[in-house]
Design goal:
homodimer, alpha+beta, NADH Oxidase, four-stranded antiparallel β-sheet, two-stranded antiparallel ribbon, 5 helices, globular
Chain lengths: 199, 199
């Protein structure tokens, strides 16, 4: 459990998101660790156990596959992800198997991705999600069928050293994250009425 | 790390979702544990740090507030949640603060909720999400404004004993969960082409 100045209530170490470094080390991810990331996503809960999440994945050594994903990124994200040994694209299945719409597809895909991110943290990896990619291009080059929605590109790898003088990413390192206070996030059963535990 | 028959690759104990019991013990949740649940949600990542998640919460001792949420549940879910000491409603903010649409609002709310669910597991609690509630009624009685979408009711508490002969929930206990194999969830950068680690 971690308790720091900006986290007044203790939460599990794994969940304490620190600033997510954008600089990656270029060493590969061990296959067994990569497998565990998807296994963690697999066990997320979902509405009616629909499991609407899908992942397109490429390692850098699979050059053509990697480039197919990498080339969809907008230039700023290419700059921050270029060292990441693994790129993924999360995709949500918008219908259940019987064809009825799944209004929780994006929500449940988020739950699976968060499991993946948390498992990455448990393995010493960082997973950096990016919404800045060309969705139509991804649909086309990755052959994503109708009924599935590309959600986020995810760069995964070991953290790099952002303070290397030679590292051109240095200037782009984000600041430590800030979060809204709980009084703005948690209400009683009436909107914006304070919940007694967060007066 | 846990490795079981249906989880061929090790994942962190916290993430290994077992079957989520629907029977709750009626003992209250300690205030410090309840605070930690929301603190965990607070630290989830989100697109442009938009933090679109909100939570409406009531403890059973806050009877009017609790009933406001409970009465929105469909009868089947009232039956399984009636002992839970805490009810929540997750809500997604569909726009950024500047009014532009946030297409990742549901996804990012899912990530925050998963943090909450995992923190619950770390504290010996169970959190059971339910999509079966009357959304329009929740909007009205909880005074949820335009631009916010009610997502899921969440019953939280200590697990109950589903094998008590007197427990009328017994017959309703779900089976252990099943999950799709990873070969159906993870592809290379081309749709439905196998990723080499999951041949």
């Amino acid at each position: 459990m971690d308790k720091s100045a900006d986290s007044p209530y203790p939460i599990h170490d794994l969940l304490r998101q620190r600033w997510s470094p954008r600089a990656f080390d270029d060493r590969p991810i061990e296959p067994e660790k990569l497998r565990s990331l998807f296994e963690a996503a697999r066990w997320a809960p979902s509405l009616d156990n629909g499991q609407p999440w899908r992942f397109l994945v490429a390692r850098k050594e699979e050059q053509a596959e990697y480039d197919r994903l990498f080339n969809c990124l907008v230039p700023g994200n290419q700059k921050s992800a270029y060292r990441a040994p693994v790129l993924m694209l999360s995709v949500a299945q918008l219908q259940f198997e019987d064809g009825s719409p799944n209004g929780h597809a994006l929500h449940d895909t988020g739950m699976a991705v968060e499991n993946l991110v948390v498992q990455a943290a448990a393995l010493g990896l960082v997973a950096h999600q990016m919404a800045g990619f060309r969705v139509d291009q991804a649909r086309e080059v990755c052959q994503i069928p109708e009924g599935y929605e590309p959600v986020a590109m995810i760069a995964v790898g070991y953290p790099g050293d952002p303070v290397l003088p030679s590292d051109r990413l240095r200037a782009g390192e984000p600041q430590p994250p800030v979060r809204k206070p709980l009084t703005e996030l948690v209400y009683s059963a009436t909107w914006e009425h304070p919940f007694p535990l967060f007066p």
